[in-house]
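sry for the spam today, last one i promise. struct tokens for design, 111 residues
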């Protein structure tokens, strides 16, 4: 079992940046199993980004070049750095380790 706790959501103006964090507790090793998803009410949850075993990243639609995923293996955490945010990035963001989900954190991009 893994418990995931997210932090760092909030409100930001278009063009701004936010950094989300996700901390894992439990004995499961989340290394290279991290990903982030987002969901807008009334729509399906969509893939945002994941980290690959070669250290690279897989990107969902429209975030490449703006979003970066990283991990700290020793601390069992993952981060999502979001730059050049747009209003359409507004959503609840969820971290995922393997099959385990965080509770979600709201990101609002608005002027």
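last one done:
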């Amino acid at each position: 079992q893994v418990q995931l706790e997210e932090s760092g959501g909030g409100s930001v103006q278009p063009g701004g940046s936010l950094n989300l964090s996700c901390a894992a507790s439990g004995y499961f090793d989340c290394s290279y199993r991290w990903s982030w998803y987002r969901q807008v009410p009334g729509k399906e949850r969509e893939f945002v980004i994941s980290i690959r075993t070669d250290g690279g990243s897989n990107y969902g639609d429209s975030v490449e070049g703006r979003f970066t995923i990283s991990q700290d293996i020793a601390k069992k955490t993952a981060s999502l750095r979001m730059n050049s945010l747009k209003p359409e990035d507004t959503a609840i963001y969820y971290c995922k380790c393997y099959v385990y989900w965080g509770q979600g954190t709201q990101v609002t991009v608005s002027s």
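The two ends are 40 Å apart (CA to CA). ok im logging off now
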